[in-house]
Amino acid sequence: MADTGADQLDDTIVSEPLDLVRLSLNERVFVKLKGDREIRGRLHAYDSHCNLVLSDVEETVYVMDDEEADLKTIKKQSEMLFVRGDAVVLISPPTQS
Amino acid sequence: MNNGTAESPFSPSAEKSETLSNNPSAFLSQITGAKVAVKLNSGVEYRGDLQCVDGYMNIALEQTEEYVDGVLKNQYGDVFIRGNNVLYISSI
């Protein structure tokens, strides 16, 4: 019992940046990607390259419309998604207070 | 021509740099816990409390504000930034 308590304490310590991602496992996360893309989904797996596996994903793509000169957003849904790590810019647990 | 004294232009004459840190990662460990500005190659800037940095220059920030063209666009509780996107880290 005391063991698990100590483990839990350890689990919440962020001693390296990827610990933040580890703490977000099985949570819904917000991911910013290269090329003006954003993704929200449940994080199932990650590795040191930031390769990610997400489920129930909503992808938002921001496109500049040249003729209208306004910002268009395109939304795409996917059930399961693998993201290659080199496209990742930022990962955040979406607990916007 | 110099007068022959072999004084290297790179000798650590500046004592100030001694009192700071003589390598970049020492500087990074000095400023962990402080409020920092992280600029990415894309020009986007993140301001927040630096939690930690690793060898890839991956960064964890707390209480983060996202500035695009100097305008506050977003706020995040915690943020992980992948190191390859980092242009600079500055303590503020």
Summarize the structure.
Helix content of chain A is 18%, strand content 51%. With 97 residues, chain A is α+β, with helices and mostly antiparallel strands.
Task: Please provide a written account of the structure.
The complex is a heterodimer of chains A (97) and B (92). Chain A is an alpha+beta fold and 97 residues long. Chain A has one domain (2-92): SH3 type barrels, CATH 2.30.30.100. Chain A is 18% helix and 51% strand. Chain A starts with a helix and ends in a 5-residue tail after the last strand. In chain B, strands 4-3-2-1-5 form a 5-stranded antiparallel sheet, with no helix packed on it. Chain B is mainly beta and 92 residues long. Chain B contains 2 helices and 5 strands. In chain B, strand 3 and strand 4 (71-81) form a beta hairpin. Chain B has a domain at 34-91: Roll (SH3 type barrels). Chain B starts with 14 loop residues before the first helix and ends with a strand. Chain A binds chain B through residues 14-21, 30, 50, 85-86, 88-93, 95-97, and chain B through 40, 42, 46, 51-54, 58-60, 64, 75-82, 84-85.
Beta-strand proportion of chain B: over 45%
Number of H- or I-type helical stretches of chain A: 2
Task: Predict the CATH topology of the domain at 34-91 in chain B.
Answer: SH3 type barrels
CATH class of chain A: Mainly Beta
Defining traits:
heterodimer, A: 97 residues, alpha+beta, SH3 type barrels, five-stranded antiparallel β-sheet, disordered N terminus, B: 92 residues, mainly beta, 2 helices
Give the topology.
The complex is a heterodimer of chains A (97) and B (92).
Chain A: H1 2-11, H2 17-23, E1 28-33, E2 37-46, E3 52-65, E4 70-83, E5 88-92
Antiparallel strand pairs in A: 1-2, 1-5, 2-3, 3-4
Chain B: H1 15-19, H2 24-30, E1 35-40, E2 45-53, E3 59-68, E4 71-81, E5 86-91
Antiparallel strand pairs in B: 1-2, 1-5, 2-3, 3-4
